[in-house]
Amino acid sequence: MVKRRDFLAGGAAFFGALPMRLCAEEGDNPLLRFGIVTDCHYADIASAGTRYYRESDGKLAECVAAMNAERADFLIELGDFKDQGDTAETTLGYLRDIEQVYAGFNGPRYHVLGNHDMDRISKAQFQSVIKNTGIAPERTYYSFDNQGFHFVVLDANYLADGTNYDSGNFDWTKAYVPQHELTWLAQDLATAAPRPVVVFIHQLLDADEGPVYVRNAAAVRAVLEACGRVRAVFQGHHHSGSYRKLGGIHYYTLKAVIEGSGAENSAYALVSAYADGRLSVNGFRRAESRELAGLPACTAGITGCSRAITVDTRTAMQRYMAQGTGVDTRTVSACRSRPATVDTLRHFGTILGLS
Ligand SMILES: [Zn+2]
Q1: Where are the domains of the chain?
Q2: Residue 97 alpha carbon to ligand 1 centre in Å
Q3: How much distance in Å is there from the Cα of 167 to the middle of ligand 1?
C-alpha cells in the first residue's frame, strides 16, 4: 500500500502511475471523495509572526497536485483565500494569482468566504475574480449535489444588521449568518431530502462564546440539527484546528495553510464518504486525520427531515431589541418529508450496490 508521505516524496513523476482510487479497499469503496483546504491568506508581502504569505501559492499548488492525483470528486477552500496589499488593486492581483493556482484542479472547485476575503475589497469584487463551478457568480451562500450527497456553503461575513462585510468595515470577532440566509438554509435542506448533507463555513459554529465563533451559531445549529441528515460541518478560521461533536453533528476545523514556513507546514485533507455513514478525513501534512462515524445514508434519509421545527432566526441583537415588543419567534418549516423520486431510488440503489 502506498503511504501518503511516500507518494508526496515521489513528486510529479509518480502522479501518472497512481491507481484511480488510492485508498479504496476491496468491498469498501468510498461513495465520493473531496478535498478541503483553508486559510491560504496568500499575498506577495513579507512574513509576519508565524504567517508566511508568499509561501501559500506553492503550498496550494501541492494540494491541487495531490487532489488531482487522488482524482478527488471536487475541491473546496474554506475561506481567507488571500490577504491584503496596500490598495484594492494590489489585493485583487493577489486574489487573481492564487485563483490561477487553484484553477489547476481538474474538477469542480468551490470557495467559502472568509473575513480576510473582504479586508481590502468588497464581496462583489471577490466574487468577480473567483469561480465556483456551476454556481452563479453573485452567490456567496449556495448548495450543490455530488454522488447523491448534498453540500451547503454558508457565508457568515455579515454585520449584526445583515450588512455585508466590505473592505474592512467589520470587526472580525463579530460574524453573523443573517436571517435571509437562515430561511434559505432551512428551505434548501428540505428540498434536498433525503440526501445526506455536509456543510462548509469559514467561522466556527460549534460554540457560542469566543472570538472565532459565529455570534448566532445556536440559531444555525438549530436548523442543521432539525434536518436530521447533516453529517458534518467543515470549518476554517481558527488556524490551529479543532474538533467537536455537538447535537449529533461532527464539527471538524481544518488547520491553516498559512501557518509556518516550508511545505511541511501546510495542511489539507481528503474526505471519503462511505455507505455505512462514515466520513473518513485523511489529513495531509499537519492536518489531523479523523474518522467521523454516522448512520447509513438510507437510514438517515428515511428517518430524518420529517418534522416541522420552530427556529428563532433572529440574531442576539435582534432578540434583545425585540424584548417586550411582542415580536414572535419565527416559525420555519425546515424539513418536509418528500415522496421517493426516481433520483432518490437511484441513490439508494447506488448505496446498496445495485448500479
Ligand atoms: Zn485565517
Answers
A1: 29-351
A2: 18
A3: 16
Q: Reduce the DSSP state of residue 303 to 3 states and report it.
A: helix
**Angstrom distance (rounded) from CA 307 to CA 355:** 31
Sign, CA dihedral 343-345-350-355, equals: negative
Output the CA 58–ligand 1 centroid distance in Å. 17
Task: Name residues with Cβ closer than 5 Å to ligand 1, which is an ion.
Answer: 39, 80
**How far, in Å, is the centroid of ligand 1 from the Cα of 121?**
16
Kindly provide the b/e burial profile for residues 183-210, where b requires at least 16 CB atoms within 10 angstroms of the residue's own CB: bbbbebbbebbbbbbbbbbbbbbbbeee
Distance, CA 107 to ligand 1 centroid (Å)? 25
174 pLDDT higher than 90: yes
Average pLDDT over residues 19-38: 70
Cβ–Cβ < 8 Å for 224, 182:
no
Q: What is the DSSP letter of 352?
A: T
Fold of 29-351: Purple Acid Phosphatase; chain A, domain 2 (3.60.21)
Q: Residue 203 C-alpha to ligand 1 middle, in angstroms?
A: 9
Count of H helices and E strands in the chain? Answer: 10, 14
CA of 47 to the centre of ligand 1 (A): 14
Distance 153 CA to ligand 1 centre (A): 17
Q: pLDDT tens across 189-217, in order?
A: 999 999 999 999 999 999 999 999 999 99
Q: How far is the CA of 41 from the centre of ligand 1 (A)?
A: 7
CA distances (Å), origin 193, targets 302, 323, 341: 9, 36, 10
